[in-house]
């Protein structure tokens, strides 16, 4: 016959084992879940390209942003930070990155969206740049996944083939 103490101890050990199995399964499924985010960004209207008084070029765009980032959400996802950047190369810099729009997505339900907006942050060539005329650029959607526990991870998707007009207008 087992004493009450031995039995309680056995139950506790058994519970801990189950808990350990559940935890490792959970983190395994999180790693196993390969996200397959989808995104599409279009310039629905090119508004203008101007030279500011201080000499820097500034552009204004209206963007159609559609994305399905629901697969980034798992039981362990706290929130996802997304931002859209215009990326281009100039003689001085291999990568110029200008953030045009961003959003914090706090739930899976909100991770699928389609919006039409003008750039939220100014598209200015800086510092002291007059490099935007005729410039080829990419629109890259970046996402940073902030987990409840564990490491943050980031990825991105580039849409290519955009070009600014040759003249101010
Ligand atoms: C952008 O979205 C609007 C309305 O949602 C649509 O009418 C328009 O055709 C879209 N433009 C492009 C370039 O996809
Ligand atoms: C734009 O995207 C293409 C394809 O991913 C890449 O080869 C190119 O270097 C990118 N350009 C810039 C300026 O980041």
Structure characteristics:
four-stranded antiparallel β-sheet; 169 residues; binds 2-acetamido-2-deoxy-beta-D-glucopyranose; 2 domains; single chain; 8 strands; Immunoglobulin-like; alpha+beta
Characterization of the model:
- The structure is a single chain.
- This protein has 169 residues and is an alpha+beta fold.
- The protein has two domains: 1-32; 36-163, Immunoglobulin-like.
- The chain has one helix and eight strands, in the order αββββββββ.
- The chain has one helix at residues 4-32; strands at residues 38-51, 57-68, 77-88, 96-105, 112-118, 123-124, 136-147, 153-163.
- Strands 1, 2, 5 and 6 form a four-stranded antiparallel sheet that branches. The chain has a four-stranded antiparallel sheet with strand order 4-3-7-8, with no helix packed on it.
- The N and C termini lie far apart (92 Å).
Distance between the termini: 92 Å
Reported for the largest beta sheet, the result is:
4 strands, antiparallel
CATH class of the largest domain: Mainly Beta
The H-and-E topology, N to C, reads as: HEEEEEEEE
Helical fraction equals 10-25%
| Strand residue content | over 45%
- Total DSSP E strands: 8
Gross geometry: elongated
- Count of separate structural domains: 2
User: Any idea what the CATH architecture of the largest domain is?
Assistant: Sandwich
Radius of gyration: 24 Å
Cofactors and ligands: 2-acetamido-2-deoxy-beta-D-glucopyranose
Q: Give me the number of helical elements.
A: 1
Mean pLDDT: 89
Helix vs. strand class: alpha+beta
